[in-house]
Amino acid sequence: MSGEFTAEGGHGAVPTEGVETGQGVKPSRRAWPLYEVFVRGKRGLNHVHVGSLHAADDEMALHNARDVYTRRNEGVSIWVVRADAITASSPAEKDPFFAPAGDKVYRHPTFYAIPEEVPHL
């Protein structure tokens, strides 16, 4: 499969062909790079993808992400990552990409006899 892919919101990869990411372009107001924004909420430990934004540099992206995605104190931590720095697998490659784990039976304790004296294993 041709083309580049990036992760978006944990829903797999999406094509970025024809989408301006700012890669190789001197930042200007018209061609600011695209950033993906991840926020960690107060109740959880995981950062969750909440959206995207364009910014001139990393610091501006962080400040803009704070202003746009945490207006109601929803988060305790923010990550911003340039979209052109993300490498992701393609949903079309799901079966061949993850298939090698299936033939490693030693990773799954399905053939061990568990004694009855061992609780909650």
TrEMBL record:
Q: Where do the segments described as Disordered lie?
A: 1-26
Tell whether Ribosomal protein is among the UniProt keywords. no
Task: List the keywords (alphabetical).
Answer: Oxidoreductase
Top-level taxon: Bacteria
One GO MF term, please? phenylacetyl-CoA 1,2-epoxidase activity
Q: Does the keyword Oxidoreductase apply?
A: yes
User: What EC numbers are recorded for this enzyme?
Assistant: 1.14.13.149
Q: Which InterPro entries match?
A: PaaB, PaaB_sf
Matching entries from NCBIfam families are given as: PA_CoA_Oxy2 (TIGR02157)
What's this protein's name?
A: 1,2-phenylacetyl-CoA epoxidase subunit B
